[in-house]
Amino acid sequence: KAPLPEIHAEDVAAHNNKERGVWVTYKDGVYDVTDFLEMHPGGASRLMLAAGGAIDPFWAMYQQHNQEEIKSLLEGYRIGSL
Ligand code: HEM
Questions:
Q1: How far apart (Å, rounded) are the C-alpha atoms in residues 27 and 25?
Q2: What is the CATH number of the domain that holds 56?
Q3: Which ligand 1 atom sits nearest the alpha carbon of residue 77?
Q4: Whose CA is nearest to atom 33 of ligand 1?
Q5: Whole-angstrom distance, CA of residue 52 vs CA of residue 14
Q6: Residue 2 lies in a domain
Q7: Over the stretch 33-54, which tens digit does the pLDDT of each residue have?
Q8: How far is the CA of 42 from the centre of ligand 1 (A)?
Q9: Which one of 34, 38, 40 would you pick to mutate in the ligand 1 pocket, going by the greatest count of ligand atoms within 8 A of its CB?
Q10: Which pLDDT band, with edges at 50, 70 and 90, does 17 fall under?
Q11: Which of 24, 62, 69, 77 to mutate to test the pocket of ligand 1 (most atoms within 8 A of CB)?
């Protein structure tokens, strides 16, 4: 499998709405979570707080994300690395 592309933080930041797509980062991973938005158990609007940026601070606050199942769910949306 081909290595994932490197994506610049500015490119992530530009993807902060449904029209362009909703990208987030977690550690050095970049994820396109547009299709997950409406499935988020915490609601689309909460996920949108992190649109175009890092989810790390939010996940530090909402520790229910700290589970392997959720990390692998997120990994399924990976499109690249910072
Ligand atoms: C719940 C995934 C981003 C706030 C959940 C749950 C999942 C999930 C799977 C259910 C957890 C459980 O019940 O065991 C994700 C993913 C995210 C993301 C994949 C990023 C792509 C965020 C962000 C916030 C947030 C950025 C806050 C700003 C919450 C809250 C709940 C929750 C408050 C609890 C909802 C409830 O039980 O009523 N998330 N989340 N999440 N998430 Fe997220």
A1: 6
A2: 3.10.120.10
A3: 21
A4: 42
A5: 6
A6: no
A7: 999 999 999 999 999 999 999 9
A8: 5
A9: 40
A10: very high
A11: 62
Distance CA 28, CA 46 (A): 21
Could you tell me the residue range of the domain that residue 53 belongs to? 9-81
- Among protein residues, the one whose CA lies closest to atom 7 of ligand 1: 41
Is 4 within a domain? no
Would 3 be classed as within a structural domain?
Answer: no
CB-ligand 1 contact for 30 (6 Å cutoff): no
Is the pLDDT assigned to residue 1 strictly greater than 70?
no
For range 8-33, the mean pLDDT: 98
| 16-38: average pLDDT | 97
Residue 60 CB–ligand 1 contact under 6 Å: no
Number of domains in the chain: 1
